[in-house]
Description:
By secondary structure, the protein is α+β, with helices and mostly antiparallel strands. It has helices at residues 3-6, 40-85, 89-99, 130-133; strands at 29-30, 33-34, 105-110, 114-123, 135-144.
Amino acid sequence: MWASERLPRLPCRLHGSRARSSASARPGRRNGRRGPEAGYATAETAVALPAIVLLCSMLLWGLLATAAQIRCVDAARIGARAAARGDGDAAAVAAAREAAPEGAEIRLERGARTVRVAVEVPFGGPGRLAGLLTVRLSAAAVAEREDVRVEEPTPPDGRQAALGGQP
C-alpha cells in the first residue's frame, strides 16, 4: 500500500471538491486540462520504434555475416591442411565443405610446393532486403605440401653443409 493511499483526501480549497490522486488522473492531461504537448509521446514512439527495429535487424544481420565469414576462413584453413597432408582432392574439399556455410563454393589448387583452398559464399540480407544487401564472403588459405620432398639447393662450392651450419 502506498503512503498516498493511506492518507485521507482533503477537500480542495479552489474548487470545493476532493483533490484527485495522481493515479486517477487521465494521461495527457495536467490538472484536468489538455496541454499543448498531449499525444507527442505516442507519436514519437510510433516513429522511433520502426527505426529501432530496423537498426536491430541490421546489427543482427551484420553479426550473422561476420559469423559466416569466420566459417569461410575456418573451412579454407581445414581444406588447405587436409590437402597439404596428402589427402586426396575430394577428401580435402569434403573437409572444407563440412566446415563451410551452406551453399559455399570451394576451389582447390595444387602448386609445386603449396596448395591453395578458396571458399566463397553469397550471404543474403534480412527479409525483403535480401536482393539489395547480398554480399559475397570469401576466404583463402595456402599451406605448404607435406607429400612433396623438397630438395635443398647445394652450395656453389659443392660441399654439403654440416649440422649446425658449420662446414
